[in-house]
Amino acid sequence: RDDGTPVLDYPLTGTVLDGARRALLAMAEIQFAAGALAVQPVHEDAGEYTSWRQARTAIEALPMRALRTRVVSAHVMGGCALSPDPHAGVVRPDGVLHALENVSVHDGALFPTSIGANPQLSIYGITSRLAAGLAQRLAGAGTGAGTSAGTSAGTGSGTSKGTGAAAGTGNAIGNGAAHTARRATAT
């Protein structure tokens, strides 16, 4: 831009679009294996499919291009409960894993579940507080300005795992290949 502000450019390359197709295929297969009666991939040209075979054939034929293939992001939340008690939570209140002293979780995985709204500011707040504490602990330990690798696992409409710097915000980026599925229920 003329004013020097950055421009976000996320080109949908063949590699990205191939990954989206593979994700659509994997999710449809999993959903049918779990008992779904019908699956509809999130793609502008997709229909509702009633068998894995039908879904696979249709998804393989979908045109994977911008504005037809949806690529979205998600804030994965939950999965790494905070608790001072190792039997009640995955991480201590300072974000450090109970099982590994040198691993911190600083993202939405610390929430008990999805909060039902955009969690950006909440994630910024918790990561800011935890990162400040981590920096103090590292400085106090005589390690200088080191970093601590963080691993987080969270759940959304599936399970997502990611790694990043402990001081990062940890927003999870989804692959944009969501589905809706209807499941049989016993009456």
Radius of gyration: 20 Å
N/C terminus separation: 60 Å
Quote the average pLDDT: 77
- Which bin fits the share of residues in helices? 25-40%
How would you sum up the major sheet?
2 strands, antiparallel
Please work out how many helical segments DSSP would assign.
3
Overall outline: extended
Q: By helix and strand content, what is the structural category?
A: alpha+beta
Assembly annotation: single chain
Strand fraction: 5-15%
Strands in their spatial order, largest beta sheet? 1-4
Stretches where pLDDT falls below 50 for ≥5 residues?
A: 143-187
Give the beta-strand count. 4
Secondary-structure element order, N to C: HEHHEEE
Describe this structure as you would to a colleague.
This protein is α+β, with helices and mostly antiparallel strands and 187 residues long. Helix content is 27%, strand content 13%. It contains three helices and four strands; from the N terminus they run H-E-H-H-E-E-E. The chain has a two-stranded antiparallel ribbon. The protein has a two-stranded antiparallel ribbon with strand order 2-3. A hairpin with a 3-residue loop joins strand 2 and strand 3.
